[in-house]
Design goal:
single chain, 281 residues, alpha/beta, Rossmann fold, 8 helices, 41% helix
Length: 281
């Protein structure tokens, strides 16, 4: 069976790496981008080929710079020889109080986390429509697009904008059979324990995981599985939605009483009620 073709941006590590491997397993050849971690992209290409027989081309692209997204798209499609799936994943998070937001922070996040997504989606949609491909566009957003935190007015606002934008884009592209969806991760372990320790936050993901209802931080493969599902025929009737993948992180309902059992505590099991029938024993 002929392998499908996918572009995944920002796939040299973390969530993008996990997404790319899930797609390779599911029968996709890949064209991926990296910003600075060439060795990570090389590692991905080797692993995708050795484990799943997938071809994986990789390209350097600084998607925070104007003009990079169209250039990257052309290179990827030429390498793949077509396109069935685009996954916009490349991005950065910058936390700054609204009073301190610098113009360069705003411009970088706007270009990388929003404009490049639009440009790549538009290029992919035009290619698919022209070639009669009933393909899929998937963006990686964030639960911060739905739940506000201090310091994320720019980042969270842009993610919220994408969550809303795909609804209209999905309507525009539905007549062509092109589906458009988002995946919104919560807290995902995007660095190894050693990398986290070197950066001065050893144990961060484990400690944070204890506060998440399902009892752990997410893994890149958790997001990858959601992307693989939305890209598959199993999701052929899903478009214009944002799928949250966060272990229940932003659900309301954290116990108000500090002494009450919280996330990670042993569940309180209901007592077995009598059915009113006496035993003969």
């Amino acid at each position: 069976m002929e392998r499908k073709k996918a572009i995944v941006t920002g796939a040299s590590r973390g969530i993008g790496y996990g997404i790319a491997l899930c797609l390779a397993r599911d029968g996709y050849d890949l064209a991926v981008s990296y910003a600075t971690k060439a060795e990570g992209a090389q590692s991905l290409a080797r692993e995708a080929e050795e484990k799943y027989g997938a071809k994986c081309s990789f390209f350097q692209a600084s998607l925070d710079q104007p003009g990079e997204a169209p250039r990257l798209f052309d290179s990827c499609v030429e390498a793949l020889g077509g396109l069935d799936l685009l996954v916009n994943n490349a991005g950065i998070t910058r936390m700054e109080s609204f009073l301190d937001v610098r113009p360069e922070t705003f411009q970088t996040l706007l270009q990388l986390d929003f404009i490049s997504y639009f440009q790549l989606m538009q290029a992919a949609a035009r290619h698919m429509a022209e070639h009669g491909v009933r393909g899929s566009l998937i963006n990686i957003t964030s639960t911060r697009g739905e739940r506000a935190y201090p310091g994320d007015s720019v980042y969270g606002g842009l993610k919220a904008g994408l969550n809303r934008a795909v609804q209209s884009i999905a309507l525009d592209l539905a007549p062509y059979g092109i589906r458009v969806n988002n995946v919104a991760p919560g807290a995902v372990r995007v660095r190894s324990n050693a990398e986290a320790a070197a950066a001065g936050f050893a144990g961060f993901w484990d400690k944070l995981g204890e506060r998440i209802p399902l009892g752990r931080s997410g893994e890149p493969g958790d997001v990858g599985e959601a992307v693989a599902f939305l890209a598959s025929d199993r999701a052929s009737y899903i478009t214009g939605t944002t799928l949250r993948v966060d272990g229940g992180l932003i659900l309301p309902g954290m116990p108000e009483n500090p002494s009450a059992a919280g996330w990670g505590a042993e569940p309180v099991r209901p007592e077995k009620k009598s059915n009113g029938i006496k035993s003969s024993r």
